[in-house]
Design a protein that fits this description.
Endonuclease, Chain A, 3 domains, two-stranded parallel ribbon, 19 helices, globular
């Protein structure tokens, strides 16, 4: 009798588990595809079907690519306020004879990201890593009213000593120093504690962005990041681009062992567009602190030293749409002669890949700069899985040679329009990261970018289809597996 009882107990457990498993599969079909791209939905369904309990746990943890409702509502309030505040303000004189596609793209950016197009701006590209840190430090030393610092990674180390010393000097002179840094990207990293202590010691007002601190009531999907990089001084000068405030090795032992150094690009800008950069900072400051900065700093417009037309495009999980992806695709379809893309992490969705292939089929010259060396294994292999399709379409792929990681992010279209910023061309930057891009119209700026691209080309080697087809089978399998996991958003 005891044996029969045990058998019946075991049978009931099997029945219960089978019912739970069936319920999970049915609910997954109903819940997962809703408002999700087919590729992402398919990847999640495969994970749930093949590893049901682990798959469900992962989906509950990272299955929602949006910020909490409260944060999204804040972003919408910010957008509405920016629209209303900037309406009717003078943002410089725009360059004449803009093509209709450019005006249409500007309207798209304005509708999605709220920022206006501004004229009469000056911009200088800085492609040397230490030089950009020194240039930012010099700008901070000239501050009279305030300094706004927002970087994905912020570390007080030997390379950034001048930057932090300039902040300390500014604070000692009574200049308001506000600092934002991403929580998850910095926590546990070298110099994290020392950096926060130094900010405290100088009297800076600082806050963590997107903190994952459930015991303090602060929680969202843990792999959401604020990936923006910007500095604003007195509303007159700003810096933005791809570079973090840290040593070019990121002070990580694994990078130092491999001899890796990051190659980046920043832009020093002045003119009315600086007000838009500052608006992004003030928006993020409000999102993290609920504090509206007083003093009329929002859209405090100052004249610039050039006549470039510039527009700031913020994007991220706080917005309803993927602002940066729509910007990139609009530019790809508008190009008439040449497209040059620099992206360290290039994992396109179907639409972006089709846009690039279509450009090649239209006879457009397309080049893509990536790194020969990878620092993030999954992204590196997912990126490689697209090389064959790109090469067959006619894209010229340049691989920046190791031991350097080409971390710059830019796209130049023909000879008059370009984009630089913090956004990679991968699904993380499109859906999970808060990013900031700057659209620029002006031949002189594109000429600067072409010079940087020429330097990158000189330090790269071209990848051919013949070489790529010699890849061993194990690499192809690994690349394709990474490509599947990249869709889990």
């Amino acid at each position: 009798m005891l044996t029969i009882s045990v058998d019946w107990t075991w049978t009931w457990w099997v029945v219960v588990l089978a019912l739970v498993d069936l319920t999970i599969r049915i609910l997954a079909i109903i819940i997962v595809p809703r408002n999700r791209r087919p590729t992402a939905a398919t990847a999640w369904l495969l994970a749930i079907y093949f590893i049901p309990y682990i798959g469900v746990l992962l989906f509950l943890l990272i299955g929602n690519p949006r910020l909490p409702r409260k944060r999204r509502k804040k972003q919408q309030l910010i957008n509405d306020y920016i629209h209303e505040t900037s309406r009717g303000l003078e943002f410089g004189t725009l360059r004449p004879n803009a093509p209709e596609w450019f005006r249409s793209l500007v309207r798209l950016n304005r509708n999605l990201g709220a920022m206006p197009l501004a004229g009469d701006n000056g911009a200088t590209l800085i492609s040397d890593y230490q030089e950009s840190l020194d240039a930012m430090a010099a700008a901070i030393r000239g501050a009279q009213r305030y300094v706004h610092v927002e970087f994905y990674i912020l570390q007080a180390d030997e390379a950034t000593e001048g930057f932090f010393a300039a902040l300390e000097d500014a604070a000692s002179r009574g200049v308001i120093v506000r600092v934002l840094l991403d929580h998850w990207a910095n926590r546990g990293k070298p110099f994290y504690t020392q950096t926060l202590r130094r900010l405290d010691a100088m009297g800076a007002q600082w806050h963590l962005m997107l903190p994952v601190q459930p015991l303090k009531g602060k929680y969202q999907r843990p792999d959401l990041r604020n990936h923006r990089k910007l500095l604003v001084v007195d509303g007159e000068v700003a810096f933005t681009g791809s570079q973090n405030v840290t040593d070019s090795t990121y002070n990580l032992p694994k990078n130092i062992r491999r001899g890796l150094h990051w190659v980046d690009m920043m832009a020093r800008i002045d003119g009315p567009v600086v007000a838009s950069v500052d608006a992004v900072f003030l928006s993020d400051w409000y999102s993290e602190t609920d504090e509206i900065v007083a003093g009329g700093e929002l859209f405090d417009v100052h004249p610039g030293t050039g006549d470039l037309d510039c527009q700031i495009i913020p994007s991220g999980p706080g917005f309803e749409f993927q602002n940066n992806l729509k910007l990139f695709m609009g530019l790809l379809f508008a190009a008439q002669h040449k497209i040059i893309i620099v992206s360290p992490y290039f994992v396109p969705d179907e639409g972006l890949l089709t846009s690039i292939q279509t450009a090649c089929q239209r006879g457009i010259h397309v080049e893509l700069f990536v790194s020969e060396e990878g620092d993030q294994a999954m992204v590196y292999h997912a990126q490689r899985s697209y090389y064959e399709a790109l090469l067959r379409a006619g894209v010229k792929i340049w691989m920046y040679q190791r031991p350097y990681i080409l971390h710059s992010k830019s796209m130049s279209i023909d000879d008059e329009v370009a984009v630089i910023g913090s956004s990679n061309m991968d699904m993380r930057s499109f859906g999970l990261n808060m990013e900031m891009s700057m659209l620029v119209r002006g031949e002189e700026f594109v000429a600067q970018l072409r010079a940087v691209e020429d330097q990158y080309r000189a330090d790269s080697r071209e990848l051919t289809l013949e070489e790529w087809m010699q890849q061993p089978l194990r690499s192809t399998v690994l690349d394709n597996l990474a490509r599947l996991t990249s869709a889990l958003q």
